[in-house]
Design goal:
The protein has 333 residues and is of the alpha+beta class. It has one domain: DD-peptidase/beta-lactamase superfamily (Beta-lactamase, 3-Layer(aba) Sandwich), CATH 3.40.710. The strands form 4 sheets. It has a 7-stranded antiparallel sheet with strand order 1-3-2-14-13-12-11, with helices on both faces. Helix 4 packs parallel to helix 8. The longest helix is centred in the last third of the chain and has 19 residues. The chain is globular. Keywords: Signal.
Length: 333
């Protein structure tokens, strides 16, 4: 079943929309008509030409302007894959905001002292939380496809150190589990409880489910995460992240590399524009373009074929980006 939702028709529907996702604002009837005209034909185009894409949510200048659900179910939880890593970085920000962390420059062994004797290389002793988030720890890692099974955190810490921390990017599926261990240690809370308190509650998300180190989320909730970053970590009247923290997340820490081939910040990929991206295997994407005040969230079929085709990224930075430009041009007419 296909579903194309462009917020049309009645003020009742608009009011329901406003209740679902504050602080997104209610569209005027004229805006709704222009949105519908701009995205006309998108539903059929995705359904026929982009078979991997399962769901799409587009937020433009604080309004939800387009939704698509191949299965007709906007409330379905979908496998976010490594978008989970980007959400984990937000929890580091909430810990800083609440004073549970002093800074990103704290060393890992100061935060978890029992790991200190597990690695005899002196360079391991200067690895910081920033290095973990930036994937520049220097550990021996060879995972160009980003699909290696993560190690248990303590075991990951024992790996050989091949380069000085901060010197080289290497995509590391074990890194987020080490960050999780740090967060659970400094807060004395399970990670699911932290997600509930620091993200689900303030952003009015549906409670995620967790499987194989991946969060399952609604596509609209992925869009909310992107919109939180657009607002410099503020949601309605609540400062979820420290002011300026989003700039740190999205500032390149290295030239990056595989599997995406873009510069890498702190849990987020960065691109020219400026654009920043949370990217999960096989086309799970939060694509944020601040110059247009644009957020695109996409979920895709999780398969090697979907990963190879890359339909979600092409859709976000291609046809949807062009439609957003066209829609904003109509504001002056």
């Amino acid at each position: 079943m296909r579903r194309f939702v462009v917020w049309l028709c009645s003020m009742v529907a608009a009011a329901s929309f406003a209740q679902e996702a504050p602080p997104w604002r209610m569209s005027t009837p004229q805006e709704q008509q222009l949105d519908a005209a701009t995205f006309r034909g998108f539903d059929e185009g995705i359904a026929t030409a982009l078979g991997d894409v399962q769901s799409v949510v587009v937020i433009l200048q604080g309004r939800k302007v387009y939704e698509y659900y191949r299965d007709g179910n906007p409330d379905a939880l979908r496998d976010a894959q490594s978008v989970t890593k980007s959400a984990m970085a937000l929890l580091v920000g909430t810990a800083l905001q609440r004073g549970q962390l002093a800074s990103l420059e704290q060393t890992v062994v100061d935060l978890i002292p029992e790991w200190r004797p597990l690695n005899s290389d002196p360079r391991s002793q200067i690895i910081t939380l920033r290095h973990l988030l930036a994937m520049t720890t220097g550990f021996e890692i060879d995972d160009p496809t980003g699909t290696a099974e993560p190690l248990a955190p303590a075991a990951a810490w024992t790996r050989p150190v091949r380069t000085a921390p901060g010197e080289r990017f290497a995509y590391d599926n074990s890194g987020p589990l080490m960050v999780q261990s740090i967060l659970e240690r400094i807060t004395s809370r399970r990670i699911a409880d932290l997600v509930h308190d620091q993200l689900v509650t303030p952003l009015d998300l549906r409670e995620p489910q967790y499987s194989h180190n991946s969060a399952w989320m609604r596509t609209v909730d992925m869009a909310k995460v992107g919109y939180l970053l657009l607002q410099d970590g503020r949601w309605a009247d609540h400062q979820v992240l420290p002011p300026g923290f989003v700039a740190q997340l999205t500032r390149p820490q290295s030239a990056g590399g595989p599997p995406i081939g873009l510069p890498y910040g702190l849990g987020w990929w960065t691109a020219a524009g400026p654009t920043y991206i949370a990217s999960g295997y096989a086309g799970q994407v939060i694509w944020v373009h601040p110059p247009l005040d644009l957020v695109v969230a996409v979920n895709s079929t999780v398969s090697p074929e979907s990963q190879q085709r890359g339909q979600a990224m092409r859709l976000a930075r291609g046809r949807i980006f062009q439609a957003a430009q066209k829609r904003l041009a109509l504001n002056g007419k």
